[in-house]
Amino acid sequence: MPFADHQAVRIYYEVEGEGSPLLLAHGLTGDTTFWRTYGYMEPLKDKFRVILFDARGHGKSDKPHEPAAYDLRLMAGDALAVLDALGIDRAHFWGYSMGGAIGLGLARDRPDRMISLIAGGVDPLYSPGERVEPNPLLGIFRRGLAEGPDALVEGMRVWAGSVNPHWEERLRALDLEAMVAYLDPARPRASFMNAPSRMNLPCLLYAGELEGAAHRNGPAAARQMPHARFVSLPGLDHGGAGVTVDSIMPHVLAFLADL
Fold first, then answer.
1. Which of 35, 183, 240, 255 has its CA 20 to 30 A from that of 46?
2. Rounded-to-integer distance, Cα 17 and Cα 47, Å
3. Closest listed residue to residue 6, CA positions, set 50, 46, 53
4. Do 157 and 125 contact (CB within 8 A), yes or no?
């Protein structure tokens, strides 16, 4: 199995297709199977060299249990380590939720490694401020650690409204200590509040209409970016925007075709 190494953390990756490189970054609790299960790969692999990777803490990648290990700059460095392992100087980047935050971090700090950015389901103007409120998922993961995977799945079902079989399988395979470390309030938080105006590369931002801050702040962030557009996905919440591929794929393909 192919792995990239970044500061002693091994990052698993896969490559499929031919063409301009496109790096895909999943959200929290995901892995490389996310993109295949929900139908992202078929429209992409005939046009791009698609690179999938498991974020640290997920899938086949290493899973540190210290909150500091999930600093956004380290996670962005994992993505760059994958490109380095493949000898790729620059790539398109598509990230959703946690993966979108990784993409925003790269666009802020290492735009020289990016051709374009597609970021969905993430607040592009996020700033932790003086106080960080605990993520509601933290309690669910802690309960899963204490009571077992059935309690985890039930907690996620209550929180999300439903859990499909593929997601349940991934939830049951999670390293919950890694999930708790990622969500720990002590983890360093990255601010994007003043970053969009400096992101001088083609960007496509999108969010479900029911997502809250990601949808509320997306249009304002796109207006600040020199070369950006925002797409609203009607009637979808955060989970729906991640798995309803037919809603976003035409926008993504049109965006990439214009570059």
1. 240
2. 7
3. 53
4. no
Q: What is the pLDDT of residues 150-178, one digit of tens each?
A: 999 999 999 999 999 999 999 999 999 99
Residue-number span of the structural domain to which 117 is assigned: 3-132+185-257
Rounded Cα distance between 44 and 33, Å, is 15
Parallel, antiparallel or unpaired: strands 3-6 and 20-25: unpaired
Is residue 138 within 8 A of residue 66, CB to CB? The reply is: no
Do β-strands 3-6 and 9-16 pair in parallel, antiparallel, or remain unpaired? antiparallel
Q: At how many degrees (to 10) do helices 72-85 and 98-109 cross?
A: 80
Helix or strand holding residue 137 (H, E): helix 136-147
Please give the Cα distance from 218 to 234 (Å, whole number): 14
Determine the Cα–Cα distance for residues 193 and 129; give it in Å rounded to an integer.
Answer: 10
Q: Is residue 148 part of a domain?
A: no
Q: 84 pLDDT exceeds 60?
A: yes
Mean pLDDT, range 75-80, rounded to an integer: 98
Asked whether residue 153 is domain-assigned, the answer is no
Is 211:238 a contact under the CB 8 Å cutoff?
yes
pLDDT band at 128 (very low <50, low <70, confident <90, very high): confident
CATH code, domain carrying 67: 3.40.50.1820
Q: For the chain, what is the domain count?
A: 1
Percent of the chain's residues with pLDDT above 70? 98
- Mean pLDDT across the chain: 96
